[in-house]
Amino acid sequence: MEQFSLNNAIAKLQLLVIFLFLSPLSFVKAQSPSNCLSTEILQVIYQHDVDHLDEILSPPKWIRISQTEKQQLIFDNDTVSYRETVWQFTMSFNYILLKMYDNPGFNNIMKLSINEECYQILFQEFTTSYPNPIASQTDDNTSTFLFEMTPNSNAIFTERVDEESKEFTFLYFNPTEISEQAKLYQENKIKQIEEQKLQEANFLYRLQLSDSLYEIGEFEKAFSQLDSAFPPQKYEEIYHEKRKLVELAIKNRDVALLLEEGKNFLAKNQFYKAKESFEKIITLDSSHLFAKEQLVEIEKKIEVLSIRDKKIFDYYEAYPAVMDSLHSRIEDWLNKFIEDLPCGTLQGIVEIKVDTLGKNQSLFLLDTFICDTSIYKVKKEKLVAFIDSLLSSPDILPVTKENIFVQASSQIQLSLIWETKELVAKFNQYKVKIHKKDAPWATMIDTILFSELYPTGSYFFNVKDKKFNNHSFTDISLKKMRFVGPEAAFYSMLYPGIGTILTTQKKHGIGAMTAFTIFGAGTL
């Protein structure tokens, strides 16, 4: 490097002498009216630091248009690498470019693309001082002239003229440094090739190791090998494909693990943890449809959890058929329950209720029960036992919202009041006489007695009026009968015992017959 610095100083001194010798011949000003650079300016430019040349080549005349690192230059068979900086002259219609090539520790190389006028002026200056340039012609249109001023100072004039264009260039350089740099360039190139071979071998080794780790499922280790590898340019496509493959494998594995984790949390009703797992899946794969669907369902479950301890849902809304069945069974049973009770009152509440654990918490609250005191205890026990057995039925199912148990409740109101009165119908073949002709069932009894040739006599009926949950209906039964004349003996012998006539006025309308049993002998 010291030798290079010494050569650098000598070359600059020689160029200074050359330019000082040439400058008085033609140029007095720095730049002539024809916009040609003077030898004085060329001297300053060549010796100046390239990074500060803008101070000399100040706008608007000269504008820096580019700067390129490691620009290769070829001198005969030698190749060197320099940084190239280009300025363009803007005060002329002619295309004038100044290119400076610099490399730390070496002299600059200066190349000037100029018009024909400036070329001829500068060429004349050099031929005056150095009259015997080495002329050569590379082709029919290109001529070069080499001026070997000193061993460390050469200038080349090149002119290319054809039918379409003319190009003129001036090149100044240190030939000794070119040889030295070419040697360094070759050495660096060889070194670079060796490094590339080593890099390639190292890359292929890591690539093979990564493939082996990938095959056994060690995806992180496989990716680590790729991450620490530096692929040569020709392997970049393979390298990036391998990275994508391993990254995809890691993602798919993580998604599968998170999917399993989320499902396990759901099975344990740990919805917040399940939500976190599925959100991580979306982070890894934003298009994962199942995870998105699960998150929607989990949000619904979390919403149910937030209100299930505060809100009691309607059991009837969940299971209307179950509630209707219970109501009907209770009504039918109570109708039979009071058959042997002439009068009484029953009021209570049957509450169908399930809790957040899905357990049946239904209960029966009996507020009032009044009947014949002689059988009160037995009847009450039967009533409570029936309702309790009904409430323990497996038909009462838990209520769920989004597959989560919630508390629900519905009530069946029990309000039953009944009383029994006696009705006497006197019948002969011509008419029926019944007290309380305004009773809705009187016409029906007339029809029944006239429809068959019943014997003349008196018929005593029990009329039981019932009101169940604001619905009224009546049961009529034949209590006894008295006949007169021969017919009484005939019917007593033919049909011994006392029969009943039963009709029920329920919700279906007044006088709807359900069954008529005459003397226990048959049904009409």
Cα distance spanning the termini: 135 Å
CA radius of gyration is 59 Å
The oligomerization state is: single chain
Structural class of the secondary elements? Answer: alpha+beta
Helix content: 40-55%
Question: What this model shows, in words?
Answer:
The chain is α+β, with helices and mostly antiparallel strands. It folds into four domains: 2-173, no CATH class; 204-308, Serine Threonine Protein Phosphatase 5, Tetratricopeptide repeat; 314-417, no CATH class; 418-517. It is 42% helix and 29% strand. It contains 13 helices and 19 strands. The chain has helices at 2-26, 39-47, 116-129, 175-215, 219-227, 236-267, 271-284, 289-308, 315-318, 320-337, 376-391, 442-451, 486-494; strands at 62-75, 78-89, 97-102, 109-114, 134-139, 142-150, 153-161, 166-173, 313-314, 344-354, 363-370, 399-401, 404-406, 408-427, 432-434, 457-468, 471-483, 500-504, 515-517. Strands 9, 10, 11, 14, 15, 16, 17, 18 and 19 form a nine-stranded mixed sheet that branches. An eight-stranded antiparallel sheet has the order 1-2-3-4-8-7-6-5. Strands 12-13 form a two-stranded antiparallel sheet. Strand 6 and strand 7 (153-161) form a beta hairpin.
